[in-house]
Specification:
This protein is mainly α and about 170 residues long. It has two domains: about 1-85, Tetratricopeptide repeat domain (Serine Threonine Protein Phosphatase 5, Tetratricopeptide repeat, Alpha Horseshoe), CATH 1.25.40.10; about 105-170, Serine Threonine Protein Phosphatase 5, Tetratricopeptide repeat, CATH 1.25.40. Helix content is about 70%, strand content about 0%. The longest helix has 14 residues, at about 35-50.
Length: about 170
């Protein structure tokens, strides 16, 4: 099978159709191993089995984002947030989808909401710095980038020397 995740999420989704927050984070950390199409199928199965699972909707948004289907990803993140408005990762994902839809002010609002809920979220800090830079708010972008570098693992900052990196990458 092409799609393997060290957490056992694949089997659990197939067997029970649910995803826990911890598993989703581990799934995100492990990556889709080049198969976001299969991840999308698994999250859709999870949603069919448990339509009120905000983690399954967020996972679907992540898979759609990786497939560069940003309008659909935005819808999935918004569904996750309708189920749990305190879901920091869904707010960040919503911001990324909005970024790629060129809706920068809305993306900034989403990143700020994510950071209200999880102030040390390195991905949201980095993405906020990107959108601030795009909006011409350079001093704020530089300050936020400094916060990102403090909050992130060394592997996340390796090679980052300017604002030329892509918010879709983690």
């Amino acid at each position: 099978m092409l799609f393997r995740v060290r957490t056992g999420l694949h089997d659990e989704v197939r067997q029970r159709g649910i995803v826990t927050s911890q598993q989703e984070q581990e799934f995100d950390d492990a990556g889709y191993q080049g198969c976001p199409e299969e991840a999308l199928i698994l999250f859709e199965q999870a949603i069919n089995a448990s339509p009120e699972s905000e983690t399954a909707w967020n996972g679907k948004g992540n898979a759609l984002k990786d497939l560069r289907r940003f309008e659909e990803a935005l819808h999935a993140y918004e569904r996750a947030l309708a189920l749990d408005p305190h879901y920091a990762n869904a707010w960040n994902g919503r911001g990324v989808a909005l970024w790629f839809l060129y809706r920068y002010k809305e993306a900034l609002t989403a990143y700020e909401q994510s950071l209200k809920l999880h102030p040390d979220n390195a991905q949201a800090l980095r993405n906020k710095a990107l959108v601030l830079h795009k909006l011409g708010r350079i001093a704020e972008a530089e300050h936020t980038m400094a916060l990102f570098k403090q909050a992130s693992k060394p592997s996340m900052t390796h090679g980052i020397t300017d604002y030329g990196f892509d918010p879709i990458k983690s």
